[in-house]
Design brief:
This protein has 212 residues and is of the alpha/beta class. The protein has two domains: 4-47, no CATH class; 65-196, Ribose 5-phosphate Isomerase B, Chain: A. The protein is built from eight helices and nine strands. The chain has helices at 7-15, 31-39, 75-87, 105-117, 133-138, 152-160, 176-187, 195-209; strands spanning 4-5, 20-24, 28-29, 43-47, 65-70, 91-94, 123-128, 146-148, 166-170. The strands form three sheets. The chain has a five-stranded parallel beta sheet, sandwiched between helices. Helix 3 links the parallel strand 5 (65-70) and strand 6. Helix 1 (7-15) runs parallel beside helix 2 (31-39) and helix 6 (152-160) runs parallel beside helix 7 (176-187).
Length: 212
């Protein structure tokens, strides 16, 4: 039986602060619900509700357990996201930093990436000023595919095409609402597999080829 999405359903999601509507494939959206989605400029994601495990990674989908960390520049955004994600019933593990005193982003990025590598969490989120240095650090660990995302398209593509397991965000380059939207889409986008898996296998082959 196809799921029916009503105006009431959309209003509940808006009240919870969500900017993304995750709909099962073939779901029926009522006219009033469609009007509300358009007026509030919400994003609709089609989700086939499957769990994926690739041959070259241990990514688990849908995500339930998230490791999150930031340097001092991302401290406030990290705390905002922890509250936001906890309210959505994700299990969030805080790797620091725990205040706004200057700290070194590689320490935090390594800790989050290692939790993902060891499968202690399903995925990770990192925040620094631009989202670039933490991604560089995290990607040094075997099996990590950290993606710096700067809009909704890059967030969806990094998951559907690249099976990214760490989302990296720039606290000084993105606003809070954009960060929430990017995070929602990233967490709710499954990996497409198919031709993309072949390319990921090649990345894994390169990673292992140069492993010391």
């Amino acid at each position: 039986m196809k799921k029916l999405i009503t105006e009431e359903d959309i209003l509940k999601l808006i009240k919870n602060g969500s900017h993304v509507i995750v709909a099962e494939k073939g779901a029926i959206i009522t006219p009033l619900a469609k009007d509300l989605i358009i007026s509030k400029k919400l994003t609709i994601l089609e989700n086939e509700k499957h769990e994926y495990s690739s041959s070259s990674t241990s990514v688990k989908f849908p995500f339930k357990k998230i490791a999150i960390g930031s340097d001092h520049t991302g401290f406030k955004i990290k705390n905002m996201l922890i509250k936001y994600l906890t309210e959505k019933n994700y299990r969030v593990y805080d790797s620091g930093t725990f205040d706004e005193k200057s700290c070194d982003y590689p320490d935090i990025a390594e800790d989050v990436a290692d939790k993902v590598r060891l499968e202690n969490t399903d995925c990770g989120i990192l925040i620094d000023a631009t989202g670039i240095p933490s991604a560089i650090t995290a990607n040094k660990l075997e099996g990590i595919r950290a993606a710096t995302c700067y809009n909704e398209f890059s967030a969806k593509s990094s998951r559907s095409h690249n099976d990214a397991n760490v989302l990296v965000l720039g606290a000084k380059s993105l606003g809070e609402e954009t960060i929430k939207s990017i995070t929602d889409i990233w967490l709710n986008s499954p990996f497409d597999g198919g031709r993309h898996q072949k390319r990921l296998d090649k990345i894994t082959g390169i990673e292992r080829k140069y492993k010391s």
